[in-house]
Amino acid sequence: MDHAHLMQVLRSAALEGGRTIMEIYEADDFEIRSKSDDSPVTAADEAADAIISDRLRRAFPDIALVTEEQADSHEQSAERFLIVDPLDGTKEFIQRRGDFTVNIALVENGVPTFGVVYAPAKGRLFYTDASGQSVEESGPFELDTVGEVKKIAVSQPDNTALRVVASKSHRDAATDAYIGKYACADMKSAGSSLKFCLVATGEADLYPRLGRTMEWDTAAGDAVLRGAGGAMVRFDDHAPFTYGKDGFANVFFIAYAPGVALKPA
Protein backbone atom coordinates (compact mmCIF):
# COMPACT_ATOMS: atom_id res chain seq x y z
CA MET A 1 0.00 0.00 0.00
CA ASP A 2 1.10 3.56 -0.76
CA HIS A 3 1.12 4.99 2.75
CA ALA A 4 1.56 8.57 1.57
CA HIS A 5 -1.61 8.24 -0.50
CA LEU A 6 -3.39 6.53 2.38
CA MET A 7 -2.68 9.38 4.76
CA GLN A 8 -3.58 11.99 2.16
CA VAL A 9 -7.00 10.39 1.82
CA LEU A 10 -7.51 9.87 5.56
CA ARG A 11 -6.48 13.44 6.35
CA SER A 12 -8.73 15.05 3.73
CA ALA A 13 -11.67 12.77 4.63
CA ALA A 14 -11.34 13.76 8.29
CA LEU A 15 -11.19 17.45 7.39
CA GLU A 16 -14.26 17.19 5.16
CA GLY A 17 -16.15 15.34 7.85
CA GLY A 18 -15.09 17.93 10.41
CA ARG A 19 -16.27 20.82 8.27
CA THR A 20 -19.70 19.26 7.96
CA ILE A 21 -19.83 18.65 11.71
CA MET A 22 -18.98 22.28 12.43
CA GLU A 23 -21.71 23.57 10.10
CA ILE A 24 -24.26 21.68 12.20
CA TYR A 25 -22.52 22.49 15.51
CA GLU A 26 -22.71 26.21 14.80
CA ALA A 27 -26.41 26.10 13.86
CA ASP A 28 -29.02 27.32 16.31
CA ASP A 29 -30.39 23.83 16.86
CA PHE A 30 -29.96 20.24 15.69
CA GLU A 31 -31.89 17.02 16.07
CA ILE A 32 -30.83 14.45 18.68
CA ARG A 33 -32.05 10.84 18.59
CA SER A 34 -31.23 7.67 20.50
CA LYS A 35 -29.76 4.53 18.94
CA SER A 36 -30.73 1.00 19.96
CA ASP A 37 -28.15 1.07 22.79
CA ASP A 38 -29.57 4.42 24.03
CA SER A 39 -26.47 6.32 22.96
CA PRO A 40 -27.19 9.66 21.27
CA VAL A 41 -26.81 10.31 17.57
CA THR A 42 -27.16 13.59 15.68
CA ALA A 43 -27.39 14.72 12.09
CA ALA A 44 -23.69 15.58 12.36
CA ASP A 45 -22.74 11.95 13.07
CA GLU A 46 -24.68 10.77 10.04
CA ALA A 47 -23.61 13.52 7.65
CA ALA A 48 -19.92 13.12 8.51
CA ASP A 49 -20.20 9.35 8.22
CA ALA A 50 -21.69 9.61 4.73
CA ILE A 51 -18.87 11.88 3.53
CA ILE A 52 -16.05 9.89 5.08
CA SER A 53 -17.40 6.51 4.02
CA ASP A 54 -17.81 7.69 0.43
CA ARG A 55 -14.23 9.00 0.29
CA LEU A 56 -12.76 5.83 1.76
CA ARG A 57 -14.77 3.39 -0.33
CA ARG A 58 -13.87 5.20 -3.55
CA ALA A 59 -10.17 5.36 -2.66
CA PHE A 60 -9.83 1.87 -1.16
CA PRO A 61 -12.59 -0.37 -2.56
CA ASP A 62 -10.72 -3.55 -1.64
CA ILE A 63 -10.26 -2.75 2.06
CA ALA A 64 -13.04 -3.58 4.53
CA LEU A 65 -14.66 -0.54 6.12
CA VAL A 66 -16.05 -0.57 9.65
CA THR A 67 -17.88 2.52 10.84
CA GLU A 68 -19.87 3.20 13.99
CA GLU A 69 -22.92 4.51 12.18
CA GLN A 70 -23.37 1.50 9.88
CA ALA A 71 -24.45 -1.47 11.97
CA ASP A 72 -24.06 -3.98 9.14
CA SER A 73 -20.34 -3.18 8.99
CA HIS A 74 -19.94 -4.48 12.56
CA GLU A 75 -20.51 -8.05 11.42
CA GLN A 76 -17.32 -8.16 9.34
CA SER A 77 -14.13 -10.01 10.12
CA ALA A 78 -10.91 -8.96 8.39
CA GLU A 79 -7.19 -8.82 9.09
CA ARG A 80 -6.93 -5.40 7.43
CA PHE A 81 -9.67 -2.82 7.68
CA LEU A 82 -10.38 0.88 7.91
CA ILE A 83 -12.33 1.89 11.01
CA VAL A 84 -14.21 5.16 11.49
CA ASP A 85 -15.93 7.08 14.24
CA PRO A 86 -17.25 10.11 12.34
CA LEU A 87 -18.09 11.98 15.54
CA ASP A 88 -16.44 10.69 18.71
CA GLY A 89 -17.76 12.50 21.74
CA THR A 90 -21.36 13.05 20.68
CA LYS A 91 -22.26 14.04 24.26
CA GLU A 92 -19.58 16.74 24.15
CA PHE A 93 -20.99 17.88 20.79
CA ILE A 94 -24.56 18.05 22.14
CA GLN A 95 -23.44 20.05 25.18
CA ARG A 96 -21.32 22.29 22.92
CA ARG A 97 -18.15 21.65 24.91
CA GLY A 98 -15.92 21.21 21.88
CA ASP A 99 -14.16 18.01 22.98
CA PHE A 100 -15.23 15.89 20.02
CA THR A 101 -13.19 14.35 17.24
CA VAL A 102 -13.24 12.66 13.86
CA ASN A 103 -11.40 9.32 14.04
CA ILE A 104 -10.14 7.28 11.08
CA ALA A 105 -7.60 4.45 11.29
CA LEU A 106 -6.14 1.55 9.36
CA VAL A 107 -5.84 -1.69 11.32
CA GLU A 108 -3.51 -4.44 10.12
CA ASN A 109 -3.17 -7.80 11.87
CA GLY A 110 -4.69 -6.47 15.07
CA VAL A 111 -2.63 -3.26 15.20
CA PRO A 112 -3.75 0.29 14.29
CA THR A 113 -0.83 1.25 12.06
CA PHE A 114 -2.01 4.59 10.66
CA GLY A 115 -4.60 7.05 11.88
CA VAL A 116 -5.93 10.59 12.05
CA VAL A 117 -7.69 12.41 14.88
CA TYR A 118 -9.23 15.77 14.04
CA ALA A 119 -10.79 18.00 16.70
CA PRO A 120 -12.50 20.67 14.56
CA ALA A 121 -13.83 22.81 17.41
CA LYS A 122 -10.41 22.80 19.09
CA GLY A 123 -8.49 23.44 15.87
CA ARG A 124 -6.18 20.47 16.44
CA LEU A 125 -5.20 17.84 13.89
CA PHE A 126 -3.06 14.80 14.71
CA TYR A 127 -2.05 11.95 12.41
CA THR A 128 0.63 9.47 11.50
CA ASP A 129 2.74 10.35 8.48
CA ALA A 130 3.68 7.90 5.73
CA SER A 131 6.48 6.48 7.90
CA GLY A 132 4.20 5.93 10.89
CA GLN A 133 5.63 8.88 12.86
CA SER A 134 2.92 10.94 14.55
CA VAL A 135 2.68 14.65 13.90
CA GLU A 136 0.45 17.58 14.74
CA GLU A 137 -0.43 19.96 11.92
CA SER A 138 -1.04 23.66 12.50
CA GLY A 139 -4.09 25.31 10.94
CA PRO A 140 -5.66 26.61 8.85
CA PHE A 141 -6.31 23.17 7.43
CA GLU A 142 -6.63 22.99 3.64
CA LEU A 143 -7.91 19.83 2.02
CA ASP A 144 -5.19 19.54 -0.62
CA THR A 145 -2.30 21.40 1.02
CA VAL A 146 -0.59 20.22 4.17
CA GLY A 147 0.34 23.00 6.57
CA GLU A 148 3.21 23.20 9.03
CA VAL A 149 3.69 19.92 10.87
CA LYS A 150 5.76 19.01 13.89
CA LYS A 151 6.68 15.61 15.20
CA ILE A 152 5.11 14.71 18.52
CA ALA A 153 6.45 12.39 21.21
CA VAL A 154 5.36 11.10 24.58
CA SER A 155 6.85 12.44 27.79
CA GLN A 156 9.63 11.06 29.93
CA PRO A 157 7.48 10.92 33.04
CA ASP A 158 8.49 11.47 36.64
CA ASN A 159 6.67 8.70 38.50
CA THR A 160 6.58 10.85 41.62
CA ALA A 161 4.44 13.47 39.86
CA LEU A 162 2.40 12.06 37.00
CA ARG A 163 -0.04 13.98 34.81
CA VAL A 164 -3.22 11.98 34.31
CA VAL A 165 -6.05 12.53 31.83
CA ALA A 166 -9.44 10.88 32.25
CA SER A 167 -12.83 10.90 30.59
CA LYS A 168 -14.97 14.00 30.97
CA SER A 169 -18.31 12.22 30.52
CA HIS A 170 -17.54 8.69 31.78
CA ARG A 171 -15.54 9.18 34.98
CA ASP A 172 -16.45 6.80 37.81
CA ALA A 173 -15.35 5.65 41.25
CA ALA A 174 -13.38 2.68 39.87
CA THR A 175 -11.36 5.00 37.64
CA ASP A 176 -10.66 7.36 40.54
CA ALA A 177 -9.60 4.43 42.73
CA TYR A 178 -7.11 3.25 40.13
CA ILE A 179 -5.73 6.75 39.55
CA GLY A 180 -5.34 6.99 43.33
CA LYS A 181 -2.63 4.32 43.15
CA TYR A 182 -0.32 6.85 41.46
CA ALA A 183 1.43 9.98 42.68
CA CYS A 184 -0.33 12.60 40.56
CA ALA A 185 0.80 16.16 40.03
CA ASP A 186 -1.99 17.12 37.64
CA MET A 187 -5.38 15.80 36.57
CA LYS A 188 -7.08 16.73 33.31
CA SER A 189 -10.50 15.83 31.98
CA ALA A 190 -11.06 15.58 28.25
CA GLY A 191 -13.61 14.09 25.91
CA SER A 192 -13.29 11.70 22.99
CA SER A 193 -9.98 10.47 21.55
CA LEU A 194 -8.30 13.75 22.51
CA LYS A 195 -7.11 11.94 25.64
CA PHE A 196 -4.85 9.71 23.52
CA CYS A 197 -3.48 12.77 21.77
CA LEU A 198 -2.68 14.52 25.04
CA VAL A 199 -0.54 11.54 26.01
CA ALA A 200 0.98 11.42 22.51
CA THR A 201 2.08 15.07 22.68
CA GLY A 202 3.48 14.75 26.20
CA GLU A 203 0.75 16.92 27.73
CA ALA A 204 -0.27 13.95 29.90
CA ASP A 205 1.47 10.75 30.97
CA LEU A 206 -1.37 8.32 31.69
CA TYR A 207 -4.93 7.66 30.52
CA PRO A 208 -6.77 4.73 32.15
CA ARG A 209 -10.22 3.76 30.85
CA LEU A 210 -12.39 1.50 32.98
CA GLY A 211 -15.53 1.61 30.91
CA ARG A 212 -17.21 0.45 27.76
CA THR A 213 -15.62 1.53 24.48
CA MET A 214 -15.60 0.23 20.93
CA GLU A 215 -12.68 -0.12 18.57
CA TRP A 216 -13.79 2.87 16.47
CA ASP A 217 -13.51 4.98 19.66
CA THR A 218 -9.86 4.09 20.17
CA ALA A 219 -8.10 2.91 16.99
CA ALA A 220 -7.16 6.31 15.56
CA GLY A 221 -6.02 7.71 18.90
CA ASP A 222 -4.11 4.52 19.59
CA ALA A 223 -2.37 4.79 16.21
CA VAL A 224 -1.34 8.38 16.97
CA LEU A 225 -0.15 7.35 20.42
CA ARG A 226 1.92 4.44 19.08
CA GLY A 227 3.43 6.68 16.40
CA ALA A 228 4.55 9.06 19.15
CA GLY A 229 6.28 6.31 21.12
CA GLY A 230 3.39 5.54 23.48
CA ALA A 231 1.61 2.31 24.27
CA MET A 232 -1.82 0.94 25.07
CA VAL A 233 -2.43 -2.26 27.04
CA ARG A 234 -5.28 -4.22 28.56
CA PHE A 235 -6.19 -2.99 32.02
CA ASP A 236 -6.53 -6.42 33.61
CA ASP A 237 -3.17 -7.98 32.77
CA HIS A 238 -1.24 -5.29 30.84
CA ALA A 239 -1.15 -7.55 27.78
CA PRO A 240 -0.95 -5.99 24.30
CA PHE A 241 -4.18 -4.37 23.14
CA THR A 242 -5.46 -5.77 19.86
CA TYR A 243 -8.12 -4.95 17.27
CA GLY A 244 -10.49 -6.93 15.10
CA LYS A 245 -12.19 -8.47 18.13
CA ASP A 246 -15.64 -10.02 17.93
CA GLY A 247 -18.17 -7.22 17.49
CA PHE A 248 -15.33 -4.67 17.71
CA ALA A 249 -15.90 -4.30 21.46
CA ASN A 250 -13.02 -3.24 23.70
CA VAL A 251 -11.94 -4.36 27.14
CA PHE A 252 -10.76 -1.83 29.73
CA PHE A 253 -7.36 -0.35 28.90
CA ILE A 254 -4.49 1.92 29.88
CA ALA A 255 -2.81 4.32 27.44
CA TYR A 256 0.48 5.69 28.66
CA ALA A 257 3.99 6.94 28.10
CA PRO A 258 6.24 3.85 28.48
CA GLY A 259 8.20 5.46 31.30
CA VAL A 260 5.18 5.18 33.58
CA ALA A 261 5.51 2.35 36.10
CA LEU A 262 2.07 0.79 35.69
CA LYS A 263 0.21 -0.31 38.80
CA PRO A 264 -1.70 -3.61 38.88
CA ALA A 265 -5.46 -3.55 38.31
From TrEMBL:
Membrane topology classification: Peripheral membrane protein
Gene3D superfamilies in alphabetical order: 3.40.190.80, Fructose-1,6-Bisphosphatase, subunit A, domain 1
Residues involved in Mg(2+) 1 binding: 68, 85, 87-88, 217
Gene: cysQ
Organism: Roseicyclus elongatus DSM 19469
Cofactor: Mg(2+)
Classification via Pfam families: Inositol_P
Family classification: Belongs to the inositol monophosphatase superfamily. CysQ family.
Localization terms from the record: Cell inner membrane
Enzyme type, top EC level: hydrolase
Name the record gives this protein: 3'(2'),5'-bisphosphate nucleotidase CysQ
Signal sequence residues: none
A biological process from GO: phosphatidylinositol phosphate biosynthetic process
